[in-house]
C-alpha cells in the first residue's frame, strides 16, 4: 500500500512516495517543483511512478494550486486527493487556536511531526518548533500536547526586500552574519538573522516560564540550516517534519 505525501509551500511543491502510510516507511521516490511548474508533474517525475494507493497533502497555497495538483494526479492515476484541514485535536495534539480550522495546515502538520519525534525520545515535555522559510513560524506546545499558540514573522528575504523598498540607498545584500558588522551588507544580513533568532528565543523563554520546564527545541524549513548555527541555544535541525506529520496522519486515516 504505497502512499504519496505532498507538501505545497509558498514557493515549491515537495513530494515523497513511501512504501506504506505509516511512520518510518521507506522512501521510494521524492522530488520538488516550483509552483509555476506544477503542470509538468504528470509528464515528468510522476509519470515514472507506480500509482500510489493513497495520497495526503498539506498546502498553504490557494485552492487553485491544489486543484492543479489534483489535475496532474487525475491524468495518471485513479487516486483521490486528500488535504489536511486542522481540527480541534488529532494525533495526540490539542489545537489551542481560537479558530482551529484557521491555523495553517503546514503549521499543524509540522507540529504533529515534531510532537511524535519528541515522544519517540522518551517522556513528554514542552516543545518549541521553529519553521524557517519564506515566512517564519514559532510554535509552543506544553507537556500535555496542547498547542499553546505561535508567532508568525517575515522570513529573511521578506525583511531584506522590505528594507530595500522602503529605505534609500539600501540593496538586498550578499553579506555574512557577524557579531559586529562593519559594512552595510553584513549589517543587513546579521540584523535579519538575529531578529529571527530573538523572536525564537523569546518564545523559548515564554514556554519555560509558562511550563516551568525547559522545552525541547526543533527547527525545520528550507532556511533552517542557515538559522540554526546562529541560535543562542541548540536546536535540533529536522528537514522532514511535514512529511513525518503526514505519515502520522496517514496511518490514522488509511490503515485500519
UniProtKB/TrEMBL annotation:
It holds the Pfam family Pan_kinase. One of its GO terms (molecular function) is ATP binding. Keywords: ATP-binding, Coenzyme A biosynthesis, Cytoplasm, Kinase, Nucleotide-binding, Potassium, Transferase. It catalyses: (R)-pantothenate + ATP = (R)-4'-phosphopantothenate + ADP + H(+). Its cofactor is K(+); NH4(+). Belongs to the type III pantothenate kinase family. The keyword Kinase applies. Pathway: Cofactor biosynthesis; coenzyme A biosynthesis; CoA from (R)-pantothenate: step 1/5. The active site is at residue 106. It is an enzyme of class 2 (transferase). InterPro entries: ATPase_NBD (IPR043129), Type_III_PanK (IPR004619). Its main location: cytoplasm. One of its GO terms (biological process) is coenzyme A biosynthetic process. A monovalent cation. Ammonium or potassium. GO terms for cellular component: cytoplasm. It is found in: Cytoplasm. It comes from the Bacteria. Its EC number is 2.7.1.33. Substrate binds at residues 97, 104-107, 184. Homodimer. This is Type III pantothenate kinase. The gene is coaX. ATP binds at residues 7-14, 134. HAMAP family: Pantothen_kinase_3 (MF_01274). PANTHER family: TYPE III PANTOTHENATE KINASE (PTHR34265).
